[in-house]
Amino acid sequence: MEGHVKITIKEIAERAGVSKATVSRVLNNSKPVNEDIKKRVLAVIDSTNFKPNAVARSLSLKKSHLIGIIIPDLSNPVFSRIIAGIESAIRNLDYSLLITATDFNVDMKMQHMQILKDKGVDGLILVTDHGNEAFFEAMLEFKKPIVMIGSDSAVDSIPVVKINNYKAACEATQHLINLGHEKIGMIRGPLTDPHSGYERFMGFRDTMMKAGLFDEARIAEGWYSFDDGYKGLSKIIKTSPDISALFCACDLMAVGAMKYATEKGYKIPDDLSVLGFDDVEIARMYNPSLRTVRQPFEEKGRLSIETLIHMIEHKGEHISFANHILTHELILRESTTSFKREGQTIE
């Protein structure tokens, strides 16, 4: 090995006794090359530790080997775990990631889509929160493969990786009802968010209405933060101080609500049962540990990038890509208990 020597394709061609065009064909695997000649060229490349210029290579291949990822919030552990799944799956592949965050702003999301398009990304992963008609038009005009995580797409050609948020919320709510709770509140996400917000709230509402228990006064709304959970329970307690259970659209809001409850003298779960959604790290670390709905975030990331790269590598072919509906799971921990009525515990 000659170490990190700066060497050109011309010099490699001279050392291997071939033309520059032959070296380019070997590097880009663009056209068949005689096996003996190919081995000779690769031997020179290995001996010099040659690294092809990424920009020049992308121009010749008409591919940048860049993947754009747009997420709502860099600080939220939900999205960092999805990114971890993507990075793990892409680690040994010849692609790099460009990650941007939008702070849940649709206009900023559209701006970032244009920026990533201008940078020549080969494809895009959208970790969605909400959109509008202009946003869906922007997706159609993107002209590169797109995969969405979390929400159904208004564009049929765009595959989605998600869980069934409605079903998961129904099951979580029914779990609280089965524990004997009737006065159950919810801190939901914004209804403009089609999955964490709307679908989870509709699952809660429909299950409560079926049981004849729904009360709009026990509903608060937040943007998936600790502070929103804290403020949300404060709002609910003012109108419904006798609630016995609370379902939150994400774990961060659930932990914020538990913090407020303990500050006001409520014992969890004896006075107030709390159920979250996501199963991020704080759910098991908080005291009491949070009972919650687990999402397979890393698997979401892995499936999304595998699907996207397959779309990139087979661009132009008439291939149908199915949506991936992943499995959720109720994780039983310490923050909920059976409702106690007149000294009796309902099992």
What does this structure look like?
This protein has 347 residues and is α/β, with parallel strands linked by helices. It has 3 domains: 9-46, no CATH class; 66-163 and 297-326, Rossmann fold (3-Layer(aba) Sandwich); 165-295 and 330-345, Response regulator (Rossmann fold), CATH 3.40.50. It is built from 13 helices and 14 strands. The protein has helices at 9-16, 20-28, 35-48, 54-61, 77-90, 106-118, 133-141, 165-178, 194-210, 226-239, 251-263, 281-285, 297-313, and strands spanning 66-71, 96-101, 123-127, 146-149, 160-163, 184-188, 219-221, 245-248, 273-278, 291-294, 324-326, 329-331, 340-341, 344-345. The strands form 3 sheets. The chain has a 6-stranded parallel β-sheet with strand order 2-1-3-4-5-11, with helices on both faces. A 6-stranded mixed β-sheet has the order 7-6-8-9-10-12, with helices on both faces. α12 (281-285) links the parallel β9 (273-278) and β10 (291-294). α6 (106-118) packs parallel to α7 (133-141). The longest helix has 17 residues, at 194-210. Mean pLDDT is 86; it is low at 343-347.
